[in-house]
Amino acid sequence: MLIVMKQGATPEQIANVVATIDEMGYRAAPMPGKQRTSVGLVGNDGRVEASRLEGLAGVAEVIHVSKPYKQVSREWKPEPTQVPLPDGSTVGGRDVVVMAGPCSVESEEQILTAAHQVKAAGATVLRAGAFKPRSSPYAFQGLGIRGLELLALARAETGLMIVTEAMDPHGLELVAESADLIQIGARNMQNYSLLKECGQVGKPIVLKRGLAATIPELLLSAEYILAAGNPNVILCERGVRSFDTTTRNLFDIAAISVVHGLSHLPILADPSHATGHRDMVPPMARAAIAAGADGLLVEMHPNPERAMSDGAQSLFPDQLERMMREITAIAEVIGRSVVTPTGATT
Amino acid sequence: MLIVMKQGATPEQIANVVATIDEMGYRAAPMPGKQRTSVGLVGNDGRVEASRLEGLAGVAEVIHVSKPYKQVSREWKPEPTQVPLPDGSTVGGRDVVVMAGPCSVESEEQILTAAHQVKAAGATVLRAGAFKPRSSPYAFQGLGIRGLELLALARAETGLMIVTEAMDPHGLELVAESADLIQIGARNMQNYSLLKECGQVGKPIVLKRGLAATIPELLLSAEYILAAGNPNVILCERGVRSFDTTTRNLFDIAAISVVHGLSHLPILADPSHATGHRDMVPPMARAAIAAGADGLLVEMHPNPERAMSDGAQSLFPDQLERMMREITAIAEVIGRSVVTPTGATT
Amino acid sequence: MLIVMKQGATPEQIANVVATIDEMGYRAAPMPGKQRTSVGLVGNDGRVEASRLEGLAGVAEVIHVSKPYKQVSREWKPEPTQVPLPDGSTVGGRDVVVMAGPCSVESEEQILTAAHQVKAAGATVLRAGAFKPRSSPYAFQGLGIRGLELLALARAETGLMIVTEAMDPHGLELVAESADLIQIGARNMQNYSLLKECGQVGKPIVLKRGLAATIPELLLSAEYILAAGNPNVILCERGVRSFDTTTRNLFDIAAISVVHGLSHLPILADPSHATGHRDMVPPMARAAIAAGADGLLVEMHPNPERAMSDGAQSLFPDQLERMMREITAIAEVIGRSVVTPTGATT
Amino acid sequence: MLIVMKQGATPEQIANVVATIDEMGYRAAPMPGKQRTSVGLVGNDGRVEASRLEGLAGVAEVIHVSKPYKQVSREWKPEPTQVPLPDGSTVGGRDVVVMAGPCSVESEEQILTAAHQVKAAGATVLRAGAFKPRSSPYAFQGLGIRGLELLALARAETGLMIVTEAMDPHGLELVAESADLIQIGARNMQNYSLLKECGQVGKPIVLKRGLAATIPELLLSAEYILAAGNPNVILCERGVRSFDTTTRNLFDIAAISVVHGLSHLPILADPSHATGHRDMVPPMARAAIAAGADGLLVEMHPNPERAMSDGAQSLFPDQLERMMREITAIAEVIGRSVVTPTGATT
Fold first, then answer.
1. Is A78 among the domain residues?
2. Is the model's pLDDT at A142 over the cut of 60?
3. How many beta-carbon pairs under 8 angstroms link B with D?
4. C282-304 burial, b if ≥16 CB within 10 A, otherwise e?
5. Nearest chain C Cα distance for residue D199, angstroms
6. Which residue among D6, D43, D241 sits closest to A243, beta carbon to beta carbon?
7. Highest mean pLDDT among A264-268, B136-140, D24-28
């Protein structure tokens, strides 16, 4: 940490910064410069309360040199984390894992049809919400426990793995019992009580990036889960808020490269929420795989025109099939391999 | 709702939109225009799933005419909501209510000293966190239940009212027992499970705007609380995320006017989190009152240089006193009146 | 255009809106709804001054149904514009055109070396700035006319085509004489005086998206050029401003799909400015091609560690070669073809 | 400047950074830390090309300690700049200067009526555009030279000073001849060719903040003007782009405090463009003055419902009068004084 003093800072002010750092239990290293003095804080263990130094008289700025996260950092663990899935494939290695399905579980017929179509297209994980976070209290909120039962049925019928969202501690318990992967939604990325409980469960967590979360904040939220005991975290870029509302969100595809640089955790892309428009999903899915994403989370509905939520961004079944063929070819160009329902690639 | 067709939309595509609207139980009103046809959806009760229409062939855009929120809307209830506080003052009328105090409860001595200073400066509500949401799992997370006990002690000693944050259902129960107002933090603005429980408690809720929440989204989150039974919601603008990181957040002061236009709910300003810099708090507090805010939420610490969190944005006690004098004069210019500890103004 | 009235709007206010629309020369179509009345403005020719209606008493909102741009719209001209280049290739058809080179022309040796490396890697256009817009008045501002002469020399030596930036009317004249394509930088996207002059020159214009420009604004700026007489406009996505400063800008890759949906104009991607980090350029270049970009604008420097500007985002020559191989394979997956120096593909 | 190395950086990589700094003509000060080594660059004169260092192997990040601007900095000149106006008042001292008038000059009758109303309300500067930058090439672009003539006539009739916008070098010459202050619009904030020419004219420049410009970038644009010879620059906050489109822009009121902290230059607020809604202008004007703005730039039209541009954000004449009374009272609370047409306050 570097404490930059104002140009006219007095020797007393500098001495006070040094004394405060001492008192906090770290070592101060003053560095007089051409225009101003800076004071280095040496020995930062990631727990320094910078705000205390920022407000001292004569201080212009406090600059963070160490990263606030630890266990999720690639400097902490250089080799990529490979999250193992029940079918023997992994997220974070050579495999590319595709999770597809409708926004919500709507009925037995709908979810079984969807599951068969997802499997036929070549994806290995079925996604669908039983508990739905909706901006409006009057919108469809999901089938709840009945939705989880139908997902279990779809797994039994097709052999697909299941990923679905948990919104609160009680829901987490239920989802952890019946799903293969647990999704934490964008709106709950900084619901720290929930994140701590995710550290206690034995299933992989798909942690979606918050609507306006920076990558370091996403990594800090993952750190909560790792620090609480669960190393199997899969991040997911799903678009961020921007000034341009032509698309539902702004797909921050570079997040894939940034995460791969800073962290050993794998990262998926969700081109459906990132764009909000069905026709943009296939090109953005291709782009994500070309950029090195470890997998995809995409919405497909047997009949998007009758979907109870997110119909506009749900693929038609035949669009999913074409998309799978294209990304399979692109993955090969960069030495990756899309996992198919017959088992993990090797 | 208006469904705008593409320029080359076929009669069949238009007929399909009309049929879908019929099937959804609303009335379709096609309007041929110079360049393109639009189809009005008449009878929207706020539950229309727009996404289903957006994805239909030939549709260029779906435009929302009705607002998605209801009970919080000024069209629903024209006169301003006045949330009653235990001292007889109200938030949302002529009164301007100031809530001040440290970021966190740190110790008995610290919180009692702060409470006396807050009272001396002329504010009526003591703010301080017992449960702290922190980006890093390694940062100070608050004193928890012991913090709530110390806040109760501060109230007993000074007569100040207490506002403090709840982060999850269990914490909400505890806070609801001991505080006068319950704060829901920015990161939990879309924690719908928590919002629903806020509807069950009998105390006023201070709902802070999410980091990148639009005003309509803030209103929808308030709608969750009203719909669940609690009409006493006080909104709070605390700065939003922006591309300019010179300040901690971007203080969206116009939100005060926007909320007053769209809703009957009162709105506070939190200039401390909005700027992150102690020296900007007094000018921004003055600005908020001049703009018509119904109150303030500000951080003050007996000794900001030793604060365990948010020291840089905490006022010194004498800064709070000067700020109170200035906003009292400004409130008078626009016909408002700052409430003092001796009781509500009349 | 749809004028949405407030819920309690009086018949007089509605009549006033109708009268104003009449006075403006259009037809008004009032539509009473369940909750409120809307008034359609029929006959919008794109010149309606919406602001006049927004401010009328009783008006809640004015909603734009028509797009403000015309000639650039895909509805105006459904088939894609193919901008012809001197080597016989086109931007906007099956060809994928790569423009590469250093940020600035620095010296004869540097630009000639760069040109030979660009050609060896398989790109067909050399990019380099002679006139440089720099945030600081004290930073290197380019070699000016001498830079243009060196670019002409590089073309003579290698046969590469040249693209370089013009910043003002005088510079535009000079650049138009010596370059094959003229670049208008992001900071000048709304320099309307300059755009109008671009309409007068006979060379293709590469129009970069402004730092915080929406796609409709980018299209309107292109419309200025088309309206002034030059149909050969190539758009370029180069990242937009965001709250996350981990990357230099936020690469809005979905802009490629959005532009292809709304307009017939071709669009390039500039992954160098979009990310600011050399190591992110190849994955983002692959992603752009996978998403359907019509070409790339990338920075490469013979010796990035000694570059006078943008060194951190400039590829090493061997990185460019590898990138060209990867994007060539990806282009084939989606039926496109990267143009090489030996001539246009067919 | 601080070059932060990656955790596993090798001694060779560190040595290379040191050597590069030496070669660039500065002194390198390596600082081994607990987790990583940093290298200080000592002697930074503001011309260091950071990008060259960012890209070196083993470098994690380059941190800027010095500010890139100089002459505009408060560290360079601690006392506030007071820009003198022809009527004897100054912008940047105790005086608060109000500039009001219509968006565009539309006709002799309109501008003369507006000028008399502005004077009657108590403002001293008439604003109105002769050259209008419009997003669409088909929108009204201003009366041009005829507009300047009408502004001169309004000055002759009322004694008000005139501020109007210049969009290009030729327009700048014309405006400099006839106006008292020259406005550079938001879209041209980084039109460096134009800024350099502003340095040559002898009139004060009102430099509006770009739509997505950070404060440091705004200051760097002002630096262009000062560096070219004109010290009389008045900054203007007019709202920035944000994800929330409820208001036209997001009024960054804290920019007033930030600029006053970093620079000696004065700053105005433009609540009309900042919000886009007439009814929000008075509360935001009050807020700006309460926050310490050195003046206001507001739109008022004799008949906003017939304005040719920006009608929805133009005040009615009586709204301007009331606003002037309110801000006069608020200015007094903080020891400032609104200048009236009878002459500067003292």
1. no
2. yes
3. 119
4. bbbbbbbbbbbbbbbbbbbbbeb
5. 12
6. D241
7. A264-268
Q: Under 8 Å CB-to-CB from A256, ≥6 apart: which residues? A: A237, A267, A269, A288, A291, A292, A293, C283
D69 lies in a domain?
Answer: no
Number of domains into which chain B is organized: 2
Provide φ and ψ at B84, rounded to 5°.
Answer: -80, 135
Q: Mutate which of A27, A39, A66, A74 to test chain D, going by most D C-beta atoms within 10 A? A: A66
On whether residue B73 sits in a domain, the answer given is: no
Same domain flag for C254 and C128: yes
Checking if the pLDDT of C343 tops 60, the result is no
- Do residue C42 and residue C176 come from a single domain? no
Contact A29 D31 (CB under 8 A): yes
Q: For position B10, which CATH number holds?
A: 3.30.70.1140
CATH number at residue C179: 3.20.20.70
| Contact yes or no for B292/B260 (Cβ under 8 A) | yes
Same domain, A162 and A224: yes
B22 and B108 belong to one structural domain:
no
Cα–Cα–Cα angle for D329, D332, D336, rounded to 5 degrees:
125
Global pTM reads: 0.91
Give the gyration radius of chain A's Cα atoms.
23
Is D330 inside any structural domain? yes
- Claim to verify: residue D40 and residue D121 sit in the same structural domain: no
pLDDT tens across C120-140, in order?
999 999 999 999 888 888 888
DSSP summary character for residue A266: -
Answer whether D340's CB lies under 8 Å from D87's CB: no
Work out the minimum CA distance from A311 to partner chain C, whole angstroms.
Answer: 19
Are residue D116 and residue D204 in the same domain, yes or no? yes
The amino acid at residue A129 is G
Q: Which residues contact A3 (CB under 8 A, 6 or more apart)?
A: A17, A21, A38, A39, A40, A41, A53, A56, A59, A61, A62, A63
Residue ranges of C 111-140 with Cβ closer than 8 A to chain D? 133-140
CB contact under 8 A, C247 and A240: no
Same domain, A191 and A283: yes
DSSP element (H, E) containing A268 = strand A267-269
Range of the domain at B99: 83-338
Give how far C198 is from chain A: nearest CA, Å.
26
Q: At D264, is the secondary structure helix, strand, or coil?
A: coil
Q: Is residue C266 within 8 angstroms of chain D, CB to CB?
A: no
Hey, which residues 225-254 in chain C have their CB within 8 Å of chain B?
241-243, 245
Candidate from A7, A31, A43 with C-beta closest to D40:
A31
Q: What is the ipTM of this complex?
A: 0.91
Q: Which of A63, A96, A115 is the last residue of a domain?
A: A63
Give C315's DSSP letter.
B
Residue B243: its chain D contacts at CB < 8 A?
Answer: 212, 214, 240
Looking at the structure, tell me whether residues C134 and C270 fall in a common domain.
yes
- Asked if the Cβ–Cβ distance from B309 to A220 is below 8 Å, we say no
